[in-house]
Design goal:
With 154 residues, the chain is mainly beta. It has a single domain, classed as Calycin beta-barrel core domain (Lipocalin), CATH 2.40.128. Helix content is 14%, strand content 53%. The chain contains one helix and ten strands. Strands 1-2-3-4-5-6-7-8-9-10 form a ten-stranded antiparallel beta barrel. A hairpin with a 2-residue loop joins strand 6 and strand 7. The longest helix has 21 residues. The radius of gyration is 17 Å and the shape is globular. The protein starts with a helix and ends with a strand. 15% of the residues are buried.
């Protein structure tokens, strides 16, 4: 009887964790809406971002273009717990952290060599059909640059 209770409790826990990730408003495929975005000239663009549940974490796959229009691709797997997790395929960053603020808001921090290079707030609209990522970084001249990327859910 005790084994059955433990197994049932474990099953409920695993199902709850899976449902919480599946219900996350970030999950799915997002396409950049250039017309609604405000992107500094020469800034790289993430044109497609895919969030997918991966075990008890999330895998984020990003495709886009660099400042010269050449294709880019990077991947990040981790949790929305504020801890740094490795980025693969991005020469401008090696670590990224996501911190869940509330159901629709996530803070993002991008690092290279232990130094924060980009900070951002990601807000998913109440209807879940769009999201806005506002980032702040410093350009080569030391000037603060703010970009606003608007994405539509596919």
């Amino acid at each position: 009887m005790r084994t059955r209770t433990i197994l049932a409790t474990l099953a409920v826990f695993v199902a709850g964790a899976a449902l919480s990730l599946a219900a996350d408003v970030n999950m799915g495929t997002w396409k950049l809406n250039d017309g609604k975005s405000k992107i500094a000239p020469g800034a790289p663009k993430n044109t497609t971002v895919i969030y997918a549940a991966m075990g008890d974490g999330v895998k984020v796959t990003v495709d886009g273009v660099d400042k010269d229009g050449k294709p880019t691709h990077n991947e990040w797997t981790g949790k929305f717990d504020g801890k740094d997790y490795a980025v693969a395929g991005d020469p401008a960053s090696d670590m990224r952290s996501y911190t869940k603020v509330d159901e629709h808001t996530t803070k993002i921090e991008v690092k290279k060599g232990g130094k924060t290079t980009i900070t951002g707030n990601l807000v998913v609209a109440a209807d879940g059909k769009s999201r806005t990522l506002t980032t702040t970084s410093t350009d080569a001249a030391g000037k603060t640059v703010t970009n606003t990327f608007v994405y539509d859910k596919q």
